[in-house]
Amino acid sequence: MQPKKLLTNLITRALEGTFEPAICKRYIRQFNIQAEIEAEDVYPLALKFLNEGDTEMAVGYIITALDIDKDHKATFNLAKTMLFSLSEDFDKANGFMYKQKNPDLNKYMDILNKSITKLNTDLTTSKNELTKLEGETGLFQKMKNKQKIAELQAQIVEMSDKFDKTRREQKKVTNLVKIEEYVKVLSLILEVITLPSRYSWLYK
Amino acid sequence: MNNKKTNGASSNISGEDSFSQTMFSSAKISSKKVEKKIEIPESNEPEKILKKEFVPQKKVIEEKPKVVIPKSIKKDAELEKNVQKILEEIPKEELTRLIKPDKKAKENLSNMDFQTRKGVSDAEKRDFVEELAKREPDPDTATINAAMVWKWKQNRDKKKSK
Which one, of A46, A82, A81, lies nearest residue A64 by Cα? Predict the structure, then answer.
């Protein structure tokens, strides 16, 4: 028989051993609850936060409930139903298509963020240059700048379009990254319970 | 009345070939069957026939699942009220779909990128999805969870569209 200490907080320990501290911090919380509290009392709190749209808090209470009792069926079922709903969302948002092109969505997100920053800088530079050229006086100077101004104006339109397109893409990928994170956390919680042999390191 | 119907049907079938005769005979059979089920009134008023056909369908749509709210939820009156409200709102087909995920939903889930660790085969991912289905709570809890997850999804969709 396993010592009792090894069987407590299994889910928290599994998360801490799998994910980066920044992710763990979002889901593993030190709730101010009594020592004798049961999973049955924590489960409604997960429902409450789910209803309020606070997914991270809801998952936090799911972890707490299953840390107390990993066989609590209501909480387990809640996590499972959330997981199915999220995978459906991922499919509807063309997540699988994105994953084929970019297996690591976080890396793709970094590329998009860098691209947006660069586009923003280039756009500001071009706009400043245009203002400067348009402000120059003198007939000869104006004639000289005419072609350059037209080029800059076309460039600005093109860059603005690219900027908007990249922002839209960033919004989509941000949503997919969030869904994927929820899925990874929830599936790990459920795997620790359903397939304990895969997590033998937790019992050592 | 039967004669009238038969005459009408025969006027639609012009050819004398065997195919049209077969069609004609099958039309006669089907019209008899319909007569037996619906019991067409003497007056032949279409409104009365429609009423008889649509009344039972309306009852099916209004039917809502009777769910016993668990004690743990009842402790929080506001949550209980919200759960009951959501149970009223959720369409029946959505509820069924969330309680019993279909083949496509299972496929989607097994295709998802699970934990950050590598080396989990496709077969293992499918095993995991099948394993999930084995641990079911009582039907009332499953219904409440499905309804709450449905509402959660609705709220997320609203946030996305903003």
Answer: A46
The answer to whether the CB atoms of B114 and A83 lie below 8 A apart is no
Q: What is the pLDDT of residues B73-130, one digit of tens each?
A: 999 999 999 999 999 999 999 999 999 888 888 888 887 766 545 667 777 777 777 7
Chain B residues in contact with A48 (beta carbon < 8 A): 76, 79
Q: Residue for token digits 């051993």?
A: A17
Number of CB pairs, chain A paired with chain B, less than 8 A apart = 122
Q: Do residues A149 and A133 make contact, with C-beta atoms less than 8 angstroms apart?
A: yes
Q: What is the mean pLDDT of residues A5-10?
A: 68
Residue A71's closest CA among A185, A184, A187, A192?
A192
Here the ipTM equals: 0.84
Give chain A positions within 8 Å (CB) of B151: 50-51
Q: CA–CA distance from A89 to each of A44, A106, A204 (Å)?
A: 24, 18, 37
Residue with tokens 């709570």, as numbered in its chain = B137
